[in-house]
Amino acid sequence: MDFFPVFLDLRRRIVLVLGEGPAAARKVALARRAGAEVRTATVFSPALLDGASLAFGAEAAEADLAALAAAAAARGVPVNVVDRPELCTAIMPAFVDRAPIMIAISSGGAAPVLARLIRSRIAAMLSPRIGRLAALAAKLRAETVRRFPEIGARRRMLELAFTGTVAERVFAGDEEGAEADYRALLARGAEAQAGAVFFVHAAEADLLTLRAARLLGSADAVVHGPAVGADVVDLARLEADRIVAGPDVAERLVALGRAGKLVVRVGAATEDHARERAALAAAGIESVAVP
């Protein structure tokens, strides 16, 4: 890890922007968008860093940019100098803003164009309303914690909310209906602690949807066929059980569901999961096909 990823709260904090021109103007606009108090200058003096939480240098004289970088580093103020990675102690990532959801992508200064291309792909795949889904969860967080004090049960309930009709209604613009569905999940209480099995047809990691990859990262167990690559299974969190599907796979899925586990069943596109889903339905365990 070349740089430590972190998000800063700049509201009502001082941000210095040294320089003038289009690049400097973009830094000023971005800092103000984050709620910062922006201090601007074209010539550096150490006093400009007094009380600053972050500094930018762009389109200023070379001597001023070097002096800014040295003084900021000496004071422990993160500094970013545009197109001069050797002068930076902080770098600006490409980012997707779906407030309160923020996604940052960085190449550590090695290939910023590539980082921006990745940002564009992620932005195209995410609903513009995904921030509203996060806002709904924040609004009902206190009640969610009260209903589900055990963190594992709470995580499973939230997975159901974020992958089911609650999310679909938010993305369709029906926030009132989404809140009603969310509250219905809360009202189910202990019943909502029942497990769920998500079926994913993808044998290679680059064929996964973002939703499938996210589910793998939060699953309690991953049940996979022999044709599924290790790069897919490795996306599961470290604590997840990894189970190779055998002749008794339907029974194993039912047992995991009854134990309240969130399960991702991964198989090649040619696999027929009808028998497994029928067994889950007969046992009253929810199963969801993930595109």
Protein architecture, described:
The protein is an alpha/beta fold and 291 residues long. 42% of the residues lie in helices and 19% in strands. It has four domains: 11-92, NAD(P)-binding Rossmann-like Domain (Rossmann fold, 3-Layer(aba) Sandwich), CATH 3.40.50; 93-126, 2-Layer Sandwich (Double Stranded RNA Binding Domain), CATH 3.30.160.110; 130-191; 194-290, 3-Layer(aba) Sandwich (Cobalt-precorrin-4 Transmethylase, domain 1). Helix 7 (165-171) runs antiparallel to helix 8 and helix 11 packs parallel to helix 12. The chain starts with 13 loop residues before the first strand and ends with a strand. The mean pLDDT is 90.
Class of the largest domain, according to the CATH hierarchy?
A: Alpha Beta
Task: Estimate the global geometry from the Cα principal axes.
Answer: elongated
The portion of residues forming beta strands comes to 15-25%
Strand order of the largest sheet: 9-8-10-7-11
